Amino acid sequence: MKRVFLTTTPSHRNAYDLFEGRWASDLSELLPELPVGGGLPGFRADPRPRQAAEVLGRGGRFDGYDILELGPLEGAHTCQLEGLGANSVTAVESNSEAFLKSLIVKNIAGLTRSTFLLGDVSRHLAAPGPRYDLIFACGILYHMFDPLELIRLAAARSDRLFLWTHYYAAQPRLRRHVPRPVEHEGMPLTLHELTYRDRGLATFWGGNQGKTRWMELPDLIRVLAHHGLSETTIITDDPDFVNGPAVTLAARRPGASSPA
């Protein structure tokens, strides 16, 4: 990012303007004096954090939960997770610009129990560290070149996983996907590989590799169960969602105890 020295009165708007035209979220939802943009309304209107709390939380909240959020982008869902009572939210983002935007959002929203980390989510999960009461992964699984490994690692670190993801189903608009037969711990599966064509755009918010692989929905549920997260609840399934079929899914390990 180009170094900028300002001589104007300090304000949140100054920080917002550092990335003018490059925001994925509508920050006017968070601070009304900011411009109303064409971004996603993730700070209040997006129902997914509340859906996660209703299915995987306690009494529709996350009081006492230590949450790991994978791919927070600009921190909109992070704000909701903290607002739903999370004891802590550790949010790992590999896009350096999105990470810096998240710090701006943290400042604007006054988040006190959320920490943003810059780096690869799989490497974070593979490194020694604590278990989490919930892993919240909204809009990231379909950006992974190895989604199977991400599920394996996530299941080893938590008894609860919330997913919103695109999945592959044969239809004309997904014709660019190339089937790739794989084997995962004895299970034959087919992943559907897609090469990014827009990584050079300022508004690219995809994965940190040049290719990604989508799962089929039955395989996703089967792999979750294989790694112990066998109590699955499909909250919404939209096969006609823009850019491809999408599912909102909560998975839990049977007998998982709630945090104290």
Automatic annotation (TrEMBL):
SUPFAM superfamilies: S-adenosyl-L-methionine-dependent methyltransferases. Keywords: Methyltransferase, Transferase. GO terms for molecular function: 2-polyprenyl-6-hydroxyphenol methylase activity; 3-demethylubiquinol 3-O-methyltransferase activity. Its EC number is 2.1.1.222, 2.1.1.64. GO terms for biological process: methylation. It is an enzyme of class 2 (transferase). This is Class I SAM-dependent methyltransferase. It comes from Methylorubrum zatmanii. The lineage of its organism: Bacteria, Pseudomonadati, Pseudomonadota, Alphaproteobacteria, Hyphomicrobiales.
